[in-house]
Amino acid sequence: MRTRPLKVALLGCGVVGSEVARIMTTHAADLAARIGAPVELAGVAVRRPDKVREGIDPALVTTDATALVKRGDIDVVVEVIGGIEPARTLITTAFEHGASVVSANKALLAQDGAALHAAADEHDKDLYYEAAVAGAIPLIRPLRESLAGDKVDRVLGIVNGTTNFILDAMDTTGAGYQEALDEATALGYAEADPTADVEGFDAAAKAAILAGIAFHTRVRLDDVYREGMTEVTAADFASAREMGCTIKLLAICERAAEGGSVTARVHPAMIPLSHPLANVREAYNAVFVESEAAGQLMFYGPGAGGPPTASAVLGDLVAVCRNRLGGATGPGESAYAALPVSPMGEVVTRYHISLDVADKPGVLAQVATVFAEHGVSIDTVRQSGKDGEASLVVVTHRASDAALGGTVEALRKLDTVRGVASIMRVEGE
Ligand SMILES: NC(=O)c1ccc[n+]([C@@H]2O[C@H](COP(=O)([O-])OP(=O)(O)OC[C@H]3O[C@@H](n4cnc5c(N)ncnc54)[C@H](OP(=O)(O)O)[C@@H]3O)[C@@H](O)[C@H]2O)c1
Fold first, then answer.
1. 333 CA distance to ligand 1 middle (Å)
2. How far apart are the C-alpha atoms of 242 and 240, rounded to whole Å?
3. Tens digit of pLDDT for each residue in 226-266?
């Protein structure tokens, strides 16, 4: 074993960074044996230098992250600051000064992954980011390496623990959205400002990263269709249950059946209770991968939290250190397929539409005609009503999002349709 240590600069020492430092210290001997050289924490960049950080030598702490990554003797920079800047500049500066990079930063990788990979390639360095998607769950490496010989057709997953906790609470207790969000906040599952989670931004960033790797195609954050889950109601859950379904916020990356394009989207959807994703409870994450030769694979586990996320960071750190000792680099960006990313209108799926209608003869026929005129075939219709008002629940066969959009627009114009109470996609069948 080499005695000269590999030097690691830790940028950020918060929820994730503090756990990375702890594991590096407590498992130092094992990590050295697995890597073939000791790893040494050479510096820790933070914002507040005076904060007490258990287990961290105060002499290593600095507020000058730039100087740390420019030192020239750093082998690996671990970026767990988060956000776009200064993380982006620090990562590119690290490459320029000879270091490889491990990051957990989904926002930055989804937005600027191509440029960061290009910078890593230019300097012949590694860029690893297993922790950026679904915390501890091995997903990036299985897609980048284990499935590199297969053809992935679909990635369908629950990649945000906060929203899964809220939807699971709504499902199991019958609570409304706000009540379930308040519970998630009180238990520490939701941040004070939950926008990034509940509006689907966090899941969309992960979908962009997953789609890019799965389909060997550059998928930008802007390519991902995004719908949050704040409009999901207790009534939607009641409807879902009647269909033998539950509701999850899903990230769905798909290869189109024809035409060689791909799509990536995040939205709430009904899935059958028999689907493995329906049983993913509380704040857990799970991702279902369908590929040509391997078939269906399921990845499940804690998608966030300090120790689980640090586990993924440490796995990357070991891999990058091994590469470095071997004078090699791991897989870089693979975007050779350059498939077009289709807009949401071309996505084909099933829909559950709930309408408030006048309770009088002929309404059902009128509504059915609108569906037929837009080429959307109806699977089931359920009607209930009294005192002149009725509710109509229509479940369609597979149709394009554009066709469904046209149908709903026309339905809204019917005098007998008082309102469209909810539209929900049905997935996983
Ligand atoms: N938390 C999770 O469960 C989780 C899961 C998966 C991925 N991630 C990703 O991991 C990254 C870190 O998340 P986190 O939850 O650990 O964040 P966090 O608890 O807010 O920690 C951020 C750290 O960065 C430091 N920092 C902030 N601005 C800085 C600057 N300009 N220069 C130097 N240091 C700076 C902070 O310093 P102070 O300590 O002085 O404030 C803090 O130590 C993010 O990209 C996040 O998306 C987190």
1. 25
2. 5
3. 999 999 999 999 999 999 999 999 999 999 988 799 999 99
- Beta strand spans in 202-274 (E): 225-226, 245-255, 262-272
Distance in angstroms (rounded) separating the CA atoms of residues 170 and 113: 35
How far does residue 41's CA lie from ligand 1's centre (Å)?
17
User: 206 catalytic, yes or no?
Assistant: yes
Whole-number Cα distances in Å, 31 to 156, 185, 313, 384: 33, 36, 13, 64
Phi, psi angle pair for 188, to nearest 5° = 85, 10
The residue assigned the tokens 């709430």 is: 268
Tell how far the Cα of 104 is from the centroid of ligand 1, in angstroms: 9
- Alpha-carbon span 175 to 165, nearest angstrom: 12
Are 225 and 347 in contact by the 8 Å Cβ rule? The answer is yes
State the catalytic residue, choosing from 7, 106, 125, 206: 206
Candidate of 16, 51, 197 to mutate for ligand 1, largest count of ligand atoms within 8 Å of Cβ: 16
What is the Cα 409 distance to its own chain's centre? 31
Start-to-end CA distance of the chain, whole Å, equals: 52
CA 90 to ligand 1: nearest atom: 32
Q: Which of 398, 418, 413, 403 is nearest to 352 (CA)?
A: 398
What is the residue with the minimal CA distance to atom 41 of ligand 1? 47
Tell me if 406 CB under 6 Å of ligand 1: no
Structure tokens belonging to residue 162: 């906060």
Identify the burial level of 386 via C-beta atoms within 10 angstroms of its C-beta, where 0-12 means exposed, 13-18 middle and 19 or more buried: exposed
Rounded to whole angstroms, how far apart are CA atoms 76 and 69?
9
What does pTM read for this prediction? 0.96
Q: Per-residue pLDDT tens for 140-154?
A: 999 999 999 999 999
